[in-house]
Amino acid sequence: MTQYCALHPLDQATTLESLDADRYRGRFPPSYFNMVGPFGGVIASTLLNAVLSHPKRHGDPVSMTINFAGPVDDTDYEILARPARTNRSTQHWTVELIQHGQPAITGTVFLAIRRDSWEGADIRMPEVPEAAKVDVLDTTGYRPWMNNYEFRVVDGHFHPDGSAPPQRDSHSTLWMRDEPPRPLDYLSLMALSDCFFPRIFIRQQQRALVGTVSMTTYFHGDAESLRRQGSRSLLGVARAQRYFKGYFDQVGELWGDDGELLASTHQIVYFKSEGF
């Protein structure tokens, strides 16, 4: 009897049809939508998938920056992924997501063939209860994209019912993974790096009109590091540094459950301050 395995929701959402050497076509499913358009993490993962699927790919991701130039909707889009320069062990890419005849997302991806070297770290994973000892967040009533993840909040939770007062800072610590579980790879790690609540939600304990303008993720682990992590939860840590004249930043870390820093991320986010 033949058995069929359904694609994981993330793989369905990031699936692309190759049109020619540098162009791909896709469409984001409603299950990954956020306040306005798709969840930014799945947009970034899809752009990264275009690079990683390209026949001229040379190396593995070290960093990715994407800029949200305009809204994305639930109609077809095209992605243009082109290698700008290839060196012996590094490769630089430009990527664009084009919808309705104009760029909605622009970005760059840096790939490298990593060499063995001295290793060290200046920061350590926080000491927190293991994931199994932290309650799973009930995502009922949240945006659709959150149902594709399991969150276990250790501290710094956002209470959308208004039951919590404004906080002194926006620091959050939480366990997170794909739901249903999926072995970690570069695509899922890229999406998970955008899974934090906007910092102003935590600080003010109320929703606001927000939108990421630019996001950079740095990949500190290699393919073997991600393979070792498997489908277990990552520990995410996030904070903001300043809210000023309509924009705030967000700094995040993603740790494997063995204490290895797998990724860090930085964003600049637009917000509307009415009501604060």
TrEMBL record:
Domain Acyl-CoA thioesterase-like C-terminal: 136-270
Matching Gene3D superfamilies: Acyl-CoA thioesterase, double hotdog domain
Coiled-coil ranges per UniProt: none
Pfam families tied to this protein: 4HBT_3, 4HBT_3C
Lineage: superkingdom: Bacteria
Domain Acyl-CoA thioesterase-like N-terminal HotDog: 30-110
Protein name per Swiss-Prot or TrEMBL: Acyl-CoA thioesterase
